[in-house]
Design a protein that fits this description.
Strand content: 15-25%
CATH superfamily: Gcn5-related N-acetyltransferase (GNAT)
Helix content: 25-40%
Radius of gyration: 14 Å
Structural class: alpha+beta
Bound molecules: coenzyme A
Length: 136
């Protein structure tokens, strides 16, 4: 799998990937999420490709204190081949290059099974309560 920064031509395939990976939820518009990311941090949307086909993504960003990862996805037909780990390694390298000391991520409680994937690649549970507030 080749991993590179997002290009405009990836957009529709990414939305299809996120949809089939159950990452699209009613309160998030994937098109707007891509547009906002590309506007603020164009190198932070990483795309995994096999023969020009989008098979993975990860969205990564550093806000000056912590790095954050969102929209990690691997196409169901390509799972179990180390692509998820490779995408996370690229995201971590992106953050380390920016001088970021720690990466955080949030897992929806309905997606608790994915915790075992993150544990397998070296992540552990933080003793925190996740909170949020919609701004628009
Ligand atoms: C999570 C996801 C990205 C994993 O991708 P993947 O390419 O199958 O993962 P990898 O092949 O790189 O697996 C890396 C390690 O995690 C383990 N692993 C992967 N999925 C696992 C699971 N569901 N349960 C337990 N372990 C898992 C693998 O066995 C492997 O361990 P090893 O290296 O010790 O053998 C993929 O399942 C996915 O896209 N899920 C749907 C979207 C999602 O939930 N994203 C995360 C939102 S927070």
């Amino acid at each position: 799998m080749e991993i590179r920064a997002y290009r405009q031509e990836d957009r529709d395939q990414i939305i299809d990937l996120w949809t089939c990976c159950n990452l699209v939820v009613p309160w998030n518009d994937p098109l707007k999420d891509i547009e906002r990311k590309v506007r603020t941090d164009p190198d932070g949307l990483l795309v995994g490709l096999l023969k020009d086909q989008v098979v993975g993504t990860v969205m990564v960003g550093y806000e000056g204190h912590r790095g954050w990862v969102n929209y990690l996805a691997v196409s169901p037909s390509c799972r179990g081949r180390g692509f998820g780990r490779a995408l996370m390694t690229s995201a971590e390298r992106f953050l380390m290059d920016a001088g970021c000391p720690k990466v955080n991520l949030q897992v929806r409680s309905a997606n608790n099974d994915v915790v075992r994937f993150y544990e397998a690649i070296g992540y552990s549970l933080d003793e925190v309560v996740g909170m949020g507030k919609r701004l628009c």
